[in-house]
Amino acid sequence: MRPPQVDRFSGTQTHNSWGIDEAIHKGLVSEAVTPRERQRLRRLCEAHAGAFVTAVPSRLDGVDCCMSPKVFRTAIRYRLGLAVAHKNVSCSFCMQPFDAYGDHAACCSKNSDVIVRHNRIRNLLARIAEEGLLSPVLEKRGILGDTPGRRPGDVTIPCWMDSKGLAVDVAVTSPFSTSNIHSSAPADA
Known about the structure:
Layout: H1 13-31, H2 35-43, H3 51-54, H4 69-80, H5 103-107, H6 112-131, E1 137-138, E2 155-161, E3 164-168
Antiparallel strand pairs: 1-2, 2-3
Helix pairs in contact: 1-2
């Protein structure tokens, strides 16, 4: 059935299907009851948001490139906006109550999982740069001397372009944290 927002069909089926999908998505976002649900629906359309669904698991790329069935089911439930945690459960790190959707686990400042995810992404980036023969250097403490407020990138490539280096800093964020829930581009904040 054609949504009322779509006036007429013209062009290819792919073009028309995309237009219908966009109209349906806009309607879902505008009708979302909570800011969290609105944010979840907006994030679904980000580039590569669902890449884990179609990615080919490969142990050759490391254990971080494979999901256990239990983790995969949890990731799908999270993506669909379904409950992933039991009621009346508290975070073992900060003792705050867990929300049913598992958002707290992704943004708890006392949870070591945030650091683990950061380090896994950093290490994967360094490994890719190493395979590209770019001689990456992982963040080293004190490399900039005593310079308050400055720190080196998580992965530094000493000779990137025009004999200048490139510093890449990895940040793990959640679109559902208090500071990002109303942001249209939480990854850019």
